[in-house]
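JOB MANIFEST
job_type = single_chain_structure
chain_count = 1
residues = 182
[input]
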Amino acid sequence: MKDITTIILTSSLIAGVISSLISFFISVTLRKMDFRNDYYKEILKKRLYAYQFIENQIVVMKAVVLGDDGKPYHMIFSQGEEKLLEFQKDMGLAITYSLWIDDKTSNSLDELNNLFFNINNQVYGKSEDDVIKIGQKYYQKVADFRISLENDIKNGLYDLHDIKKIFKRKTKSSKRIIYKEN
């Protein structure tokens, strides 16, 4: 009887230790998973915010009007030099969030920023009519960049949930070059 009691108590003790260890490891694993999920949620929020910021820039480029001569230009050019500078400043802010977006969208933003850098150099000190003429000159180029950026955002949003993929392929050149048009 004493042997049976000892065996039962030993078995109970061993079972208790084993179940405690299993419970501990499961608890630690679940906490790690919760931490990872919370981390991914925060990254996802940052990515969504970045895409919303870029989307706001696209909305500005969608408004198109016709000049007196019947040629189209983006409405931002009818609002003067200050609004163009403000637009480029906002574009710079959108670029600051490029860490959270895919490389292709980031590159499109850089190209669009380079284009507006050159446009802003041309509109400096010009009259409103001259700014509109410059807007007409660059209408198709701005429209093409906007469409390209929209398509890149759509593709980026398709992979929005794939955090590992976005950070795995994230590469950035160490040197940024802005080309000035003549």
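[summary]
The CA atoms of residues 3 and 9 lie 10 Å apart.
The chain has a mean pLDDT of 82.
exit_status = 0
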